Sequence to fold (363 residues):
Amino acid sequence: MEKKDKILSVRGLDITFRTTAGPVHAIRGVDLDLYRGETVAVVGESGSGKSVTMRAAMGILASNATVNGGTIQFSYRHADGSPETVDILKKDKKWIRRHINGKRMAMIFQDPMTSLDPTMTIGKQIVEGMIWHYKTPKNEAYQRALELLREVGITDAEKRMKNYPHQLSGGMRQRVVIATALACDPDLLICDEPTTALDVTIQAKILELIRRIQKERGISVIYITHDLGVVAKVADYIEVMYAGKIVEKGTANEIFYDPRHPYTWGLLSAMPDLDTSDERLYTIPGSPPNLLHEKPGDAFAARNPYALKIDDRLTPPMFRITDTHYAATWLLDSRAPKVEMPVELRARIDRMKKEAGQVDTGK
Ligand SMILES: Nc1ncnc2c1ncn2[C@@H]1O[C@H](COP(=O)(O)OP(=O)(O)O)[C@@H](O)[C@H]1O
Ligand SMILES: [Mg+2]
Fold:
């Protein structure tokens, strides 16, 4: 059996925010693993806890956050090649900034302007990290920055180096952010809704770019998105998150072709589909629970047309479907009635499978 190199391992992560209205239990026991060179997508509606989980991994949680428990093990190699594993939650912010952030883990946000300084030229922003983390000589850093700009598909790189962020389009800015993120050769790239603010054609190009860079450099990538469609082509594994928990996880094929959790059924049904002539998009009825008032049982029960009585009392455990596929729904208990996914979704999946099959045989 091949031994894969684990880079990130989150166990039992539990986070509460102090607010004037009371404690908000935003992360309620998250487990997540990522291996070198692989891509994991964390998918779920807005407010499900995707960003908070990743901010915890980067050591950049808001000051009103309390970590109630859990570990975030990050593995990397020192310059001399010796391996190291640290629990990010046990390190202080200063240490993380010096040794991890921007150097071994880099994050790309939805709005490139959150990562870019409007008062600094593009060139200066790209070389900054190299100089700070590696003491790279200025002219060498400048040459690297030029190469990086070309690598992310920016033409006229010399001229662009002297530009300010506002002189670039949204898509170009996101490319600059990616170049900046790559400048220090990170092992892990966390992309938080990296294309949400961009139009569809640019979105596809940015995703393609991240995918290519990942393959070339062998880095690991985590995508955060509310839109499953975005990660269909790029994710190896998908984690579906709801109300601060992972409710289903599997390979991309398992999640797209054999989803088991009614929430995942909802997310898949809500994906825009080029084949359906119906313009009205399905939306999951209701809204996510208010985590200020936690209730016992399955947090999705109130919105779940297939909810069972037990859902009101007990939180479902993760049921194993395969070695890679798990879902937290009582429907998978051996005593549960047999429930099938909605027929429209079944039909849609069959269509997707057929299309994928046609592509494969066409090779
Ligand atoms: N600094 C904060 N103070 C209070 N609540 C917060 C804070 N940051 C995030 N939250 C809450 O935590 C939950 C998860 O947020 P987030 O991880 O940003 O969701 P997502 O990225 O999945 O849209 C939400 O209910 C959000 O309101
Ligand atoms: Mg978010």
About this structure: Residues 50-51, 192 surround magnesium ion (ligand 2) (CB under 6 Å).
